[in-house]
Specification:
- By secondary structure, the protein is mainly alpha-helical.
- The chain has 4 domains: 3-180, Neurolysin, domain 3; 214-278, no CATH class; 312-387 and 573-642, Orthogonal Bundle (Neurolysin, domain 3), CATH 1.10.1370; 388-568, Neurolysin, domain 3.
- Helices cover 54% and strands 6% of the residues.
- The protein contains 28 helices and 7 strands.
- The protein has helices at 18-24, 27-34, 59-78, 86-95, 98-113, 117-138, 141-153, 161-177, 183-213, 229-241, 267-278, 289-305, 311-316, 324-355, 364-379, 383-386, 392-408, 492-509, 525-536, 542-548, 560-568, 574-591, 603-613, 631-634, 644-661, 667-678, 686-694, 701-706, and strands spanning 216-218, 248-250, 411-414, 426-431, 437-446, 456-461, 472-479.
- Strands 3-4-5-7-6 form a 5-stranded mixed beta sheet, sandwiched between helices. The chain has a two-stranded antiparallel ribbon with strand order 1-2.
- Helix 3 runs parallel beside helix 6 (117-138) and helix 14 (324-355) crosses helix 22.
- The longest helix is centred in the middle third of the chain and has 32 residues, at 324-355.
Length: 711
């Protein structure tokens, strides 16, 4: 059974069998299903989806039939009269659901990266059904009895370590899904799951619509002073595409902070943009605040049913952190240094406001603008002077791909013959140092209509030697593409994100495990960001920078003086960056630390009280995500888990510091990291895998140095 289907169930009952589906189909529907490419294994290399044949109308019938087929397979396994064995139970489950795995992988990737009204409707329709399908598996008493038998026998039955790990992962997932509940409790959890599934889907769709409608329309070009000509042309193109020819549309990104504010001179317009971002979801047609309150309540009720004090305790039980107290302790130990650093940064920015003739108190919409002036003053570094050296294609090929070859011995070759789901997407094939083909990789880096905000990695096919599958992986970002005919430049933050997402990508593409449920990134939330954050730091390595940071016209390398300033400036504004992240992470934890009997909360006051409680209530530095558009926690899989980025960063910083003592950028240490961390997926417990690489447990010294928070 694929890892997406042993995840914690979120939905209600759906009693569906293959027979029932077939009986419901008319002759026309049967013919349509026979022509559905998702019903067959793709003929393309490594089963890469044939996007040239897949249409929107194929998804609903394929998903429905996929659930029916897998449910029939699961019933056969659960009702097998033979005594449970590893092969007739877990291996059989790992092999089940091939159609559903195939169809859902394509569907949910496109629903996030290239959606439309049809796909959004399918997503809404399928959300409770898919969650119910998981319930029907995870709450099946006969199936769980077989798994529990194997769990109790796991250490005495001669299983290999990877098989023991699979037994333990299955058992834990089923228990956390409610397999040990009585029938009355199971019925209740199904009801909660149904509502939860619908609400998380609705939240995601509302914030996507809300971010689009929050875009700020400008009629007077003079108000855009401070933006580059390319930024102004892009704003004009966006306005024209939205039906406002002759005007300028400034898009809202998914974070509270808006990058464009660093350049925009007009303070009133900066305030308007910031408020459009920060106040999303609080009112209007796409209001999400009420969903936030109810989701927090639902999760707490579900956790109580499962024997936990709150959702945070439930969610952290299988993670490295184990308890909410461990997370609160980690952040609490860092708050004094972070707040002190942030206040120093704020004082420098306030002084800059005064020195440039401003007579006002620093506000959130001022931080980026005047912070950039402070950065230029402290480091004599102008962002505009750096960008010509960060042309997108060169960063990708001579930066990201170059690092993969230097560390891990792999190369990426373009595959223009493979069909893609959008013209901006490019396909590549990964080859090992001996010429062996390893994986297919899709690069989807540019922002567009129909793509949710942020950056992520996902898989169309997960690696598994049991199933004979090689990985097919995609990286998705939202880089603003330059107008046709012009080069696309990326900020250094975007450069770092490209490396970060490739860290996730190689976690999937280097995977070398037997069972799909243990493949690639199927690790705990507070470990999955470790390999990606580790990869991110190579973007600043002098040898890597020298290879990709070249002027887009002349090919001249970034001058040594600029390079030195760039590297020195990496520690700038780290108080702000760290505090806004910690604020979001702690707000997430507080929402999910509510007890089951807590009433519905007012979002704005709850958030304010949470920040005050943890000493993070600094007006000029709001959380990176406000609750009403916090997709990670209220639409994605990071509820009570947003802390994981920093938890993983502790591992990454410690590991990167260790690597520098081993010669830095070299194949030997790269291959050690590849084999001990990336190849093993979840077949080895996270801390065990880390210590296999590092030789000891991590310390926090590395992260403080990485963020420039030490003296």
């Amino acid at each position: 059974m694929h890892k997406t289907l042993i995840a914690l169930a979120i939905g209600a009952a759906l009693s569906l069998t293959a027979c029932q589906v077939n009986q419901a189909n008319s002759p026309a529907q049967v013919q349509q299903m026979q022509q559905n490419p998702l019903l067959q294994v793709s003929h393309l290399q490594y089963q890469a989806p044939d996007f040239s044949q897949i249409n929107d109308e194929h998804f609903a019938p394929a998903l429905t039939q996929g659930m029916a087929e897998q449910y029939a397979e699961i019933l056969t396994i659960a009702n097998n009269p033979a005594a449970p064995t590893f092969d007739n139970t877990l291996v059989a489950m790992e092999r089940s659901g091939a159609l559903l795995t195939r169809a859902s992988a394509v569907f949910y990737n496109l629903a996030g990266s290239n959606t439309n009204d049809v796909l959004r409707q399918v997503q809404s329709d399928m959300a409770p059904k898919m969650a119910a399908h998981s319930d029907n598996i995870n709450l099946n008493p006969e199936l769980f009895a077989r798994i529990e038998t194997l769990y109790h026998q796991r250490l005495s039955s001669g299983l290999t370590p990877e098989k023991i790990r699979l037994v333990e992962v299955y058992h834990q997932n089923f228990v956390l899904a409610g397999a040990k509940l009585n029938e009355e409790q199971k019925l209740k959890i199904r009801e909660l799951n149904k509502e939860h599934s619908s609400l998380t889907n609705e939240f995601g769709q509302r914030i996507m619509r809300g971010s689009k409608s929050a875009a700020v329309l400008v009629t007077d070009k003079n108000l855009l002073a401070g933006l580059t000509d390319a930024q102004i042309r892009a704003a004009a193109a966006d306005a024209k595409a939205a039906g406002f020819d002759g005007q300028y549309q400034l898009q809202i990104t998914n974070t509270t902070r808006q990058p464009i504010l660093a350049n925009l001179d007009n303070r009133e317009l900066r305030q308007q943009i910031w408020q459009a971002s920060a106040e999303r979801g609080l009112s209007g047609d796409d209001e999400t605040a009420s969903i936030v309150s109810r989701l927090a309540q639902l999760r707490s009720e579900r956790a109580q049913l499962l024997g936990f004090d709150n959702w945070a305790s439930y969610r952290l039980a299988p993670q490295m952190a184990k308890t909410p107290e461990a997370v609160y302790s980690m952040f609490g130990s860092m708050v004094p240094a972070v707040v002190a650093n942030t206040k120093q940064e704020a004082a420098a920015i306030q002084a800059m406001i005064k020195s440039t003739g401003g007579d006002f108190t620093l506000k959130p919409w001022d931080w980026e603008y005047y912070g950039e002036k402070v950065r230029q003053q402290q480091f004599d570094l102008d962002e505009a002077s750096i960008k010509p050296y960060f042309e997108f294609e060169r960063v990708l090929t001579d930066g990201v791909f170059f690092t993969l070859e230097q560390l891990y011995g792999v190369t990426m070759q373009p595959r223009p013959d493979l069909p893609v789901y959008h013209p901006d997407v490019k396909a590549y094939e990964m080859f090992d140092s001996d010429g062996t083909s390893m994986a297919i990789f899709y690069a989807d880096y540019f922002a567009r209509e129909g793509k949710r905000g942020g950056a992520w990695m996902s898989s169309f096919v997960n690696q598994s030697s049991l199933l004979g599958n090689k990985p097919v992986v995609v990286n998705v970002m939202n880089i603003k593409k330059a107008p046709d005919g012009e080069p696309t430049f990326v900020s250094y933050d975007e450069v770092s994100t490209m490396f970060h997402e490739m860290g996730h990508g190689t976690h999937g593409m280097f995977s070398k495990v037997t069972y799909p449920s243990l493949s690639g990134t199927a690790v705990s939330r507070d470990f999955v960001e470790f390999p990606s954050t580790f990869e991110e730091d190579w973007s600043a390595h002098p040898k890597v920078l020298a290879n990709y940071a070249k002027h887009y016209q002349t090919g001249e390398p970034l001058p040594a003086e600029l390079l030195e300033k760039l590297l020195a400036s990496r520690s700038f504004n780290q108080g702000f960056d760290t505090l806004e992240y910690m604020a979001a992470a702690l707000v997430d934890m507080e929402w999910h630390s509510l007890p089951a009997d807590a009433p519905l909360q007012d979002v704005a006051s709850f958030e304010a009280n949470a920040l005050k409680k943890h000493g993070l209530a600094i007006e000029a530095v709001p959380p990176r995500y406000r609750s009403a558009f916090f997709a990670h926690t209220f639409a994605g899989g990071y509820s009570a888990s947003y802390y994981a980025y920093m938890w993983s960063e502790i591992l990454a910083a410690d590991a990167f510091a260790y690597v520098q003592t081993q010669g830095g950028l070299n194949r030997d240490i790269g291959m050690k990291f590849r084999k001990t961390i990336r190849e093993v997926g979840n077949s080895v417990a996270p801390m065990e895998a880390y210590q296999n690489f590092r030789g000891q447990a991590p310390t926090t010294q590395g992260i403080l140095e990485r963020r420039g928070l030490t003296q």
